Amino acid sequence: MRYTGMKPKTDARKLDQSTQAPRRKMVVQAVRDGMTQVDAARTYRVSLRAISRWMKAAREGGLRALRPGKRGAVDREGHLSHRQAVRMRKLIIERMPDQLSMPFYLWTRESVAQLIERECGIKVSKWTAGRYLKAWGMSAQKPVRRAYERKDEAIERWLNEDYPTIAKEAKQEGATIYWGDEMGLRSDHISGTSFALKGETPVVRATGKRFGCNMISAITNRGELSFMVFEGTFKNATFIEFMKRLLKQATRKIYLIVDGHPVHRSAAVKKFVAENAKRLRLIRLPGYCPELNPDELLNQDVKTNALGKSRPTSKADMIGTVRRHLHRRQKEPHVIRNLFKEKHVSYAA
């Protein structure tokens, strides 16, 4: 054999386990401290492939994952058949864990792994479950709350029958469809993110004196916006005053779609609507489905871009900030129209 002047690599597999574990930790720590994997392979005389495998194990399970294990063949995880994979994907898309009598609120890698084991009798790690989720076109997302009281049948009927009929009738009458909603605003509202040193949560300082105001608004898919900012609770008189303002500026009949707030169902409001039936029609959405109302997106815009980017020091300052933002939005009809492009409200565009 020709002499190359290089020391032969030590086959780590031939070392006893009491020697292997410390060496793995030394190599991983050296790489973490800044040594390249190539230099580590040369220094500790191990293969790059082994170092790559140890680094991955340490990332996923910490240094404990480098402890000596059993020799011999590794127990491989089971694999889902195509039919099993299709079934698991369907369950995850159509149901939440609690609907499948599982002790979880959300679909996580751990809960998916348990679902696979329970339904298919195949045990997989959370990392394998994560790879399945990625292959199935899924990603981790912030969930949206849904009330238990909501009735899916009523929502389906609204989307497929009720609203198409309303839109047709509005066209026949030459009416304009407005989507209305009201919202409370607080001085301690925080939205968005802030840069800070890693591991140090940023602290937002604000006055300990909390204050707030309320707003009511209505928008159309043509980009029109009407609003009213007010103090105190939302009462019958407030809503009636808002509808009067809508009627005063309107040149066509108004179809106003709102949620099931008690004020919207009050006797005083019903009387006012009846007295103005030739120019006003009040329509209520199905219960517990705010995501169907495009005006909810305007509420989010106000919280994020008006309050979220300022720190009001008084109630007057807060009201002024909200009003200025909404006045600006009135001059930007394209922004209002874009709200109707969101997937869950596009039916109203």
Automatic annotation (TrEMBL):
SUPFAM superfamilies documented for this protein: Homeodomain-like (SSF46689)
Residue ranges of the region described as Disordered: 1-23
Domain Tc1-like transposase DDE residue range list: 177-315
Protein name: IS630 family transposase ISCARN25
Domain Insertion element IS150 protein InsJ-like helix-turn-helix per the UniProt entry, residue ranges: 24-72
Listed Pfam families: DDE_3 (PF13358), HTH_28 (PF13518), HTH_33 (PF13592)
Winged helix-turn helix domain residues: 104-161
Organism in which the protein naturally occurs: Paraburkholderia aspalathi
